[in-house]
Design goal:
The protein is α/β, with parallel strands linked by helices. The chain folds into three domains: about 5-155 and about 280-350, FAD/NAD(P)-binding domain (3-Layer(bba) Sandwich), CATH 3.50.50; about 165-275, FAD/NAD(P)-binding domain (3-Layer(bba) Sandwich); about 350-465, Enolase-like, domain 1 (2-Layer Sandwich), CATH 3.30.390. It has helices spanning about 15-25, 45-50, 55-70, 85-110, 190-200, 220-235, 325-340, 370-375, 390-395, 425-435, 440-445, 455-465, and strands spanning about 5-10, 30-35, 115-120, 120-125, 130, 140-150, 150-155, 165-170, 180-185, 205-210, 240, 245-250, 255-260, 265-270, 270-275, 280, 315, 355, 360-365, 380-385, 400-410, 415-420.
Length: about 475
């Protein structure tokens, strides 16, 4: 029986980062991965690299460039006529990027001495792991420590069963070789909006059916309101809230979707239907009943603040535990666990994890929203600065959106920052750093920012907290 200091189950962003960090710290590490990618190779990188974060961003970038060339070059004096897009080539480029990055993880494993094992892992009692390969062969390995990083999978819903042809999940939506004339999307969350944007840019008539009455309920309401206005009025997405899908029927290569809203039952016919209602932990068959690790009723592995399970020496990180299902959150948990295994006092600040929706404009946030602060009874003050007042954004012809800074009313400590606009994902990161150091809005306002840059909008929003923004007229404070 092989034995390792650490066995990691899953090679997604949480798992492969944990494995590499543990190896860097001098531990003998094995990492298990059960999936096979489109190239017939081990699917290192999990959902994120293979069928999630990376391929979706490749398509988002390709389609944004196409729309920009088609609709926005003329204002720059650039004549671009007769434009077309080769969708199979776009998909091939996406696959090439995925292959390069997943292959890179294999090389990183070799460089760091991590043993890669192809197969499914099951945690047994006594810190043993049962490994089943693709041929059904079973072996058992032993570890001083086990890190469970099995990830998540798309949620299925009975009214719209996935066939990966007409009705697809987020994975299938990355493989269309032609633009559907009418595209239905169930779910107006991160995945639904991103994938809807991809195909909407290429000419699909996109209808988004969202069961909830509120648009992006976890996003600051002011930002969500602006986002909905941009997506519907400027980009043509047909977003229908309070629309609960009750059934679907595939016939002659099309799908008829039945849904109910406040006006009663309705039907729509689509060429393709994307089911994007969220993800669930991939925990089936993962734990033996006597291994000592417990799960909740939704299949999440129970852990404490340091990702320790109820079984000593067994940890769980990433999508399979509580908290947001974000690659960067899982990666940092992986680092924390690896360092704690060797006795370091590593910890994670869950209050400063940035969240991003990679539409255009991007939506990014860190910290608390106005609604959360009101619910908690915390006094706060707000500064808002629009990209329309940014010289750099105007030069780029990319002025939609705003930066919203929220600070404590008495201490001025930054409590949250919410952005919709160009490069929002990168802009919010500087606020993440500021919050990690307990900065005030005044600290950002006193910092010298390069001019002209998009980053100046963050400084101006911080100044606006006290009504001191330079490049917009200050609102008069109520007496």
């Amino acid at each position: 029986m092989s034995k390792y200091d650490v066995v990691v189950i899953g090679s997604g962003p949480a798992g492969y980062v944990a494995a590499i960090r543990a190896a860097q710290l001098g531990l003998n590490v094995a990492c298990l991965e059960r999936s096979t990618n489109k190239l017939g190779k081990t699917g290192f990188g999990g959902t994120c690299l293979n069928v999630g974060c990376i391929p979706s961003k490749a398509l988002l970038d390709s389609t944004h460039k196409f729309v920009e060339a088609q609709d926005d070059f003329a204002i720059h004096g650039i004549a671009a006529t007769g434009l077309s897009i080769d969708i199979p080539q776009m998909i091939a480029r996406k696959d090439q990027i995925v292959g390069q990055l997943t292959g890179g993880i294999g090389q990183l494993f070799k460089a760091n001495g991590v043993t890669a094992i192809k197969g499914s892992g099951k945690v047994l009692a006594g810190k043993k792991v049962e490994v089943t390969d693709d041929d059904g062969k079973v072996e058992t390995i032993e570890a001083d420590n086990i890190i469970i990083a099995a990830g998540s999978i798309p949620i299925d819903i009975p009214p719209a069963p996935i066939d990966q042809d007409v009705i697809v999940d987020s994975t299938g939506a990355l493989e269309f070789l032609e633009t559907p004339k009418r595209l239905g999307v169930i779910g107006a969350g991160v995945i639904g909006l991103e994938l809807g944007s991809v195909w909407g840019r290429l000419g699909a008539e996109v209808v988004v059916l969202e069961a909830l009455e509120d648009f992006l309920p976890n996003v600051d309401k002011q930002i969500a309101k602006e986002a909905k206005k941009i997506f519907t009025k400027k980009q043509g997405l047909d977003i229908r809230l309070g629309a609960r899908v009750t059934g679907s029927e595939v016939k002659d290569g099309k799908v008829t979707v039945t849904y109910a809203d406040n006006d009663g039952e309705k039907q729509e016919v689509f060429d393709k239907l994307i089911v994007a209602v969220g993800r669930r932990p991939q925990s089936e068959g993962l734990l033996a009943g006597d291994c000592g690790v417990t799960m909740d009723e939704r299949g999440f592995v129970y852990v404490n603040d340091y990702c320790e399970t109820d079984a000593p020496g067994i940890y769980a990180v990433g999508d399979i535990v509580r908290g947001p299902m974000l690659a960067h959150k899982g990666s940092e948990e992986g680092v924390m666990v690896a360092e704690r295994i060797v006795g370091q006092k590593a910890a994670m600040n869950y209050d400063t994890i940035p969240n991003v929706i990679y539409t255009h404009p991007e939506i990014a946030a860190v910290g608390q929203t106005e609604e959360q602060l009101k619910a908690d009874g915390i006094d706060y003050k707000v500064g808002v600065f629009p990209f329309a007042a940014s010289g750099r954004a105007m030069a780029a012809n990319d002025t939609a959106g705003m930066v919203k800074m929220i600070a404590h009313a008495e201490t001025d400590r930054i409590l949250g920052c919410h952005i919709i606009g160009p490069s929002a994902a990168d802009l919010v990161q500087q606020v993440v750093i500021a919050m990690e150091f307990g900065s005030s809005a005044e600290d950002i306002g006193l910092t010298v920012f390069g001019h002209p840059t998009l980053s100046e909008t963050v400084k101006e929003a911080a100044l606006a907290v006290e009504g001191h923004a330079i490049h917009i007229a200050a609102k008069k404070k109520r007496k």
